[in-house]
Design brief:
The complex is a heterodimer of chains A (612) and B (368). Chain A has 18 helices and 17 strands. By secondary structure, chain A is α+β, with helices and mostly antiparallel strands. Chain A folds into five domains: 204 residues, Heat Shock Protein 90, CATH 3.30.565; 66 residues, Orthogonal Bundle (Helicase, Ruva Protein, domain 3), CATH 1.10.8.50; 107 residues, no CATH class; 142 residues, 2-Layer Sandwich (Ribosomal Protein S5, domain 2), CATH 3.30.230.10; 48 residues. Chain A is elongated and about 140 Å long. Chain B folds into two domains: 134 residues, Winged helix-like DNA-binding domain superfamily/Winged helix DNA-binding domain (Arc Repressor Mutant, subunit A, Orthogonal Bundle), CATH 1.10.10; 174 residues, Dna Topoisomerase Vi A Subunit, Chain: A, domain 2. Chain B is α/β, with parallel strands linked by helices. Classes of the chains: A alpha+beta (612), B alpha/beta (368).
C-alpha cells in the first residue's frame, strides 16, 4: 500500500451514506419498501416492548401525483407506542448507530439502525427534513424537524415545538425518492403478511393511489414478551469472552482523593477522622454493603496498614498476587516500597479476585446461561483448565483454547428460549383462520432448539380449502415476526416444503393449501445481507421438517375423513338416483302394480363402507 | 334326405317369445322380492373375458366357461351398470310384449327418456351383450337389431307375426331385389319352401347377379346376401332354414382370408358371441373361393396386404383352423400371398361362376 495515501476517519453516517446498498437502499423501488419496513417494524417493536396492543398507521403519498415514477413520496408511520423522550429524539433519529435494542433477545430489528438509514436516504434524495412527533405521557407532544449532519453524525434541529395531545405514541414522516409503481405490490404484501403474523395489532395502509387497506386486531392479548438473558456458551467467540472478562475485572485502584471520598462515604466516616484500626473495624461491620471498588481499597489498606491521610500520599504501583508482594510509591519519602501480603488474610482473596478475575467455574456459572457448578467443573476438566484458574490470568492462547472448548463441550444445556418471542399456537391459528377462512387448519409450536448457541423456535401452520383458491401450495415465511418476501428460491423453508411428498398425505394436484412458517431466534441465520431468506442450518431444517410433517399428518387424517364424507355423500346421491329407477323397472318387469318398499334401503346404502 | 314341405307354420317364433317373456318376468320378480326384503339385488353375468372363452369341440363353436361375475347394486361402483342392465331388461320386455323393434342406436337414445345415462353407444352396446349373456338369448330375440341389413331371395313362404301383419303370408321370390332380413323376417314363422339348398353369398353385387341368373331356379336354392360378415339376424335365419326347413347351407365368399372366416363364423360362430348358442350352422359348407381355386382356375389376383398376412397367422392359432380344408387353404393363402375376388370369374364371362364354377364344386354336389 502506498504510504502517500491519507487516512481519514469517517463517521458512521458517512460510512452508511457510502454503503447504503448494504442496508437495502440500493434503488428507489427497494428503498421505498425498506423504509416502510424499518418504520413499521420499529413501531411494532416499541409497542411489543411496552405490552401495548399496537395500532400502526402507514401512509404513502406522492408529493406530485402527476410525475412519473421514480418520484418523491411522503412516507408517514404513526403508532400508539410509548413514544421517545424529548431529549432522546434528536439523537435517536439524527444519529446513525444510536439505539436502544442492544440486548440479547428477539426483536424485529436489532439496533433501530434501519430507520436512521431511511431518514438518511430520504434526506440525500430529496433534501427534506424528517418530522418527528412524540408523546410519552399522553399529555404533551414534542414535534421536531431534524436534519442529519452526515459528516459529523449529529442531528441539526430545525424546529422544536411542544403541543397538547391526548395519546402517547410516535409519528414519523419523511420525504424520499421512491417508485411505488414497482414497489407497490411488495409493500401491500408486506402489510398483509405483517398483519397475518401480528394478529394482536391493527395495521392500516393508505396507498398513493387512494386505496385503503385495513387489518384490524383479531386477538386482544399479547404474546409473552421476551427477556434479556446471558449468552449461551456455544454462542460466544474469543472477542466476546474478552469483553465479558473485562466486565468482571477491575484494574488496580488509583487511590486519589475521589476514591478516598467514596470510601469514606460508604463507611459513613465523612465527618470523622478515624485511625487505621478503627477504619478496619468499621469496614468489617459494613462489609456486606460496600461496593466492589471500596472493598478493593480497604483490602489494600489492610496490607499497607495506613489511614486515609497516609493513603492520600502514596501511589499504588503493582499488586503481584502470585508472589504475594504489594508495591507502592510514597510521595512523602519519594521512594518505592514493597511489602508482603499474608495469603491467609481474607483481604488477600479479595485482591486476588479483583486483579485476576473470577475463577473459571465462577465465570462460567455467573456469566453464562444455564451453566451450573457441576457442568462448569466438568467443562474445566474437558478444556484442560483448573476449575479455580483465574480468568484474568489467561494468556491469549489460553483464551482461544477456552473459546474453542466452549464450542466443543458436548453437555451444555440447550439455550434458554425465554429470550424468544414466538407468536404462540393459538394466536397463529386465529390469525390464519381470519385471513384464509379455511376448511381445515392445524398449527404447531415446536419446542426450543439451538444452532451454534443461538436458541430458536419454529412455529408453523397449515390451512386447506375453504376460501383458499386452488392453484398450489402458498408458503408465507416469517422470521421474528417479519415477512420474508424476496429471494424465495433459496430459502430453507421452501426447501423443506419442496421435499414433502404430498401424495403420502392424500393431497393431490394444485391444492388450495397455505403454509405459514415462523422462525424465531436471537439471531436468524440469513443467507444474505438483504435478510430475505434463511440459510439451511441442519438444526433449523430438522425442526422445520418435523413441524411440517406433524401438520401434514394432521392434514392427511383430515383429508381421509373428508374423502370418506365425500364418498358417503356421493354414495347417498348415487343410491338416491338409481334405486328408485331399479324399483320402477323391476315393478313393471315383474308385472306388479305397487313399487317395492325400498326407502329403508337408501339409509342402509349410505352406511355401507365403501367396498371398492 | 329332403324334408317335406310344410304348409302350417311351426309357431316356433311365438314359443320363443313367450319363454323369453317368462324369463324376463322371473328376473324382474327376483329383483322385486329382493327389494321388498331390503336385500340389494344383483345379476350374475357370465364373464366374457378372453380367459373364459373356450372352444367346445362337441358343439363346434366357442362358448363361455363357467366364470361369472356378480353385478351387485350393493357395490357403489357397479350400481350404475346394474341399473343400466335392469333398464335394458325392462325396455326389452316392453319391446317383446308390444312386438316392437329397436336398433342398437335406438336403444342408446331411448335410455335418455328414462334418466338412465349411457356415456356413449359402445357402453349401451356392451350392456346389451351383458343382458344377452345373462339370459343366454340373442338380442334379436329381444327385438334389438343392428343397423346393417342383409337380404334373402328365393321360394320361401313366411307368415308375419309383427303387429298389423299377423297371419299375413309372403313369398320371398316375389321381389327381385330380395327381402331385407329385418325385425319382421326375424320374427316370422317359416311356412313352406320348394328350395333344396341355401346359398349364402358375401357380396350384394353377386347376390343381384344370382337373382338375374335365376340361380334360385337352376339350383333350387334360397339365396342369402350376408353383406360381408353375416349379421346375427342373418345367421339366425340361416340356422332356422337349416334346422326347421332341413336345407343344407353353402357359402360363397371372396378368395381371401376374410372370406374364409366369414364362412367359418356362419358355421361355428364368433368369439364375440360365445355367450350365445343358437347362431351357428355347424353343417354349413364353404364352397370357395378357395386359395387352391386361385391356382386351379388361374384367377386374376391382387397382392395381399400386411394386415391380410397378419390375419392369416392369427387364424392359424384358432383351434378351428387346425385341420382339414380350413388349415390347408390358410397355408396356400400364406404361400400365394395373393387374393382373388368373387368377380374374378368374370374373366371367363359373366355367367361363368354359375355355369361352370358352382356345378364343379364337389362339395356342392355332395350336399345336393
Amino acid at each position: 500500500m502506498s504510504s502517500k495515501g491519507t487516512f481519514d476517519q469517517i463517521s458512521p453516517s458517512e460510512f452508511f451514506y457510502r454503503n447504503r446498498d448494504l442496508a437495502g437502499f440500493s434503488n428507489p423501488t427497494r428503498s421505498l419498501y425498506t423504509a416502510v419496513r424499518e418504520f413499521v417494524e420499529n413501531a411494532l417493536d416499541a409497542c411489543d416492548q411496552q405490552g401495548i396492543l399496537p395500532d400502526v398507521h402507514l401512509s404513502i403519498k406522492a408529493v406530485d401525483p402527476e410525475k412519473p415514477d421514480p418520484k418523491p413520496y411522503i412516507l408517514s408511520v404513526k403508532d400508539n407506542g410509548p413514544g421517545i423522550e424529548s431529549k432522546h429524539v434528536p439523537l435517536a433519529f439524527g444519529t446513525v448507530l444510536y439505539g436502544s435494542k442492544f440486548g440479547l433477545k428477539q426483536a424485529r430489528g436489532m439496533f433501530g439502525l434501519g430507520a436512521t438509514m431511511a431518514i438518511l436516504y430520504g434526506q440525500i434524495t430529496t433534501n427534506k427534513p424528517v418530522h418527528v412527533k412524540s408523546s410519552t405521557d399522553g399529555k404533551t407532544q414534542d414535534e421536531f424537524e431534524l436534519i442529519l449532519d452526515i459528516q459529523k453524525n449529529k442531528p441539526i434541529i430545525l424546529k422544536h415545538e411542544t403541543k397538547d395531545t391526548s395519546k402517547t405514541g410516535l409519528s414519523i414522516s419523511i420525504c424520499l425518492e421512491g417508485d411505488y409503481a414497482k414497489a407497490g405490490s411488495k409493500i401491500r404484501d408486506y402489510v398483509y403478511q405483517t398483519s397475518l403474523i401480528t394478529p394482536y395489532a391493527t395495521v392500516t395502509f393508505d396507498d398513493p393511489k387512494g386505496e385503503k387497506f385495513r387489518y384490524t386486531k383479531i386477538i386482544r392479548s399479547m404474546p409473552p414478551a421476551p427477556t434479556i438473558i446471558s449468552p449461551h456458551p456455544y454462542g460466544v467467540d474469543v472477542e466476546t469472552i474478552k469483553r465479558m472478562i473485562g466486565d468482571s475485572m477491575f484494574s488496580i485502584p488509583t487511590v486519589d482523593n475521589n476514591t478516598i471520598e467514596k470510601v469514606k462515604t460508604e463507611l459513613g466516616l465523612r465527618k470523622k477522622d478515624l485511625n487505621y484500626t478503627e477504619i478496619m473495624a468499621q469496614a468489617k461491620r459494613r462489609w456486606s454493603s460496600l461496593t466492589r471498588n471500596v472493598r478493593v481499597v480497604i483490602a489494600v489498606m489492610s496490607f499497607l496498614k495506613m489511614d486515609f491521610d497516609k493513603l492520600s500520599k502514596i501511589r499504588m504501583d503493582d499488586i503481584d498476587v502470585s508472589r504475594k508482594k504489594l508495591t507502592f510509591w510514597d510521595f512523602g519519602e519519594s521512594k518505592s516500597f514493597t511489602i508482603d501480603m499474608d495469603p491467609e488474610s481474607d483481604y488477600y482473596k479479595q485482591l486476588t479476585n479483583t486483579v485476576q478475575g473470577e475463577t473459571l467455574v465462577s465465570f462460567l456459572t455467573k456469566r453464562f446461561q444455564r451453566v451450573g457448578r457441576t457442568t462448569a467443573e466438568k467443562f474445566a476438566e474437558f478444556a484442560g483448565f483448573k476449575p479455580e484458574k483465574r480468568i484474568g490470568t489467561m494468556t491469549n492462547e489460553e483464551l482461544v483454547k477456552l473459546s474453542d472448548s466452549l464450542q466443543k463441550f458436548p453437555t451444555f444445556l440447550s439455550p434458554d428460549p425465554s429470550c424468544l418471542a414466538p407468536l404462540g399456537a393459538e394466536p397463529l391459528e386465529k390469525g390464519m383462520k381470519a385471513f384464509f377462512n379455511p376448511d381445515f387448519i392445524s398449527v404447531i409450536q415446536r419446542g426450543a432448539s439451538a444452532y451454534s448457541g443461538f436458541p430458536f423456535v419454529v412455529e408453523m401452520g397449515i390451512a386447506y380449502g375453504g376460501a383458499i383458491p386452488a392453484g398450489g401450495t402458498k408458503v408465507y415465511r416469517f422470521a421474528n415476526r417479519i415477512p420474508l418476501l424476496y429471494d424465495e428460491g433459496s430459502d430453507v423453508v421452501l426447501k423443506v416444503v419442496g421435499e414433502i411428498d404430498w401424495s403420502r398425505y392424500k393431497v393431490k394436484g394444485d391444492p388450495p393449501l397455505v403454509i405459514v412458517s415462523h422462525i424465531c431466534s436471537t439471531r436468524i441465520p440469513y443467507k444474505t445481507v438483504g435478510k430475505e431468506n434463511v440459510s439451511d442450518r441442519p438444526e433449523i431444517e430438522r425442526e422445520l421438517r418435523l413441524a411440517l410433517q406433524f401438520l401434514c399428518r394432521k392434514l392427511a387424517s383430515y383429508m381421509s375423513k373428508r374423502g370418506l364424507a365425500e364418498m358417503e355423500k356421493k354414495r347417498a346421491n348415487l343410491y338416491l338416483k338409481y334405486l328408485p329407477l331399479v324399483a320402477q323397472f323391476c315393478t313393471e318387469l315383474a308385472g306388479k302394480k305397487k313399487e317395492p318398499d325400498y326407502k329403508k334401503m337408501l339409509k342402509e346404502a349410505v352406511s355401507i363402507e365403501a367396498e371398492t | 334326405m329332403k324334408p317335406k314341405p310344410k304348409t302350417q307354420p311351426k309357431k316356433s317364433t311365438e314359443e320363443r317369445r313367450k319363454s323369453l317373456a317368462q324369463l324376463l318376468k322371473n328376473k324382474g320378480t327376483e329383483i322385486y322380492e329382493d327389494l321388498e326384503k331390503g336385500k340389494f339385488p344383483s345379476f350374475s353375468v357370465p364373464s366374457r373375458s378372453v380367459s373364459n372363452i373356450v372352444y367346445d369341440t362337441k358343439l363346434r363353436q366357442y362358448i363361455l366357461g363357467s366364470n361369472a361375475s356378480l353385478r351387485s347394486s350393493r357395490n357403489m361402483s357397479q350400481l350404475r351398470s346394474f341399473t343400466q342392465l335392469m333398464w335394458l331388461a325392462f325396455f326389452a320386455n316392453r319391446l317383446v310384449n308390444e312386438k316392437k323393434s329397436s336398433t342398437l342406436r335406438d336403444i342408446y337414445y331411448s335410455s335418455q327418456a328414462f334418466a338412465v345415462d349411457f356415456e356413449d353407444q359402445p357402453e349401451s352396446d356392451n350392456i346389451i351383450v351383458d343382458l344377452e349373456a345373462v339370459l343366454t338369448r340373442p338380442r334379436e330375440d329381444l327385438h334389438i337389431f343392428p343397423e346393417e341389413r342383409s337380404s334373402v331371395f328365393g321360394d320361401l313362404t313366411i307368415e308375419y307375426t309383427v303387429p298389423g301383419y299377423e297371419g299375413k303370408r309372403s313369398n320371398l321370390s316375389d321381389h327381385p331385389d330380395g327381402y331385407l332380413i329385418g325385425p319382421s323376417l326375424s320374427s316370422c314363422e317359416l311356412v313352406d319352401t320348394s328350395a333344396e339348398l341355401v346359398i349364402a353369398i358375401e357380396k350384394g353385387g353377386l347376390f343381384t347377379r344370382f337373382v338375374e341368373e335365376k340361380v334360385d331356379k337352376k339350383f333350387k336354392a334360397i339365396i342369402v346376401d350376408t353383406a360381408g360378415q353375416a349379421p346375427r339376424s342373418t345367421r339366425y335365419l340361416l340356422k332356422r332354414l337349416h334346422d326347421e326347413m332341413g336345407l343344407p347351407v353353402v357359402i360363397l365368399t371372396d378368395g381371401d382370408v376374410y372370406g374364409e372366416h366369414i364362412a367359418m363364423v356362419i358355421k361355428s360362430g364368433s368369439a364375440n358371441a360365445a355367450h350365445l348358442r343358437e347362431l351357428t350352422v355347424p353343417d354349413a359348407k364353404w364352397l370357395g373361393v378357395w386359395a387352391s381355386d386361385i391356382e386351379k382356375y388361374k384367377l386374376p389376383t391382387i397382392p395381399m396386404t400386411e394386415s391380410d398376412i397378419k390375419r392369416i397367422s392369427d387364424l392359424q392359432k384358432d383351434p378351428r383352423y387346425q385341420e382339414g380344408n380350413w388349415k390347408k387353404q390358410l397355408e396356400i393363402f400364406l404361400k400365394l400371398k395373393r387374393k382373388a375376388e368373387l368377380e374374378a370369374f368374370s374373366k371367363y364371362g359373366l355367367t361363368n361362376i354359375t355355369d361352370k364354377y358352382l356345378p364343379e364344386k364337389p362339395e356342392l354336389a355332395k350336399s345336393l
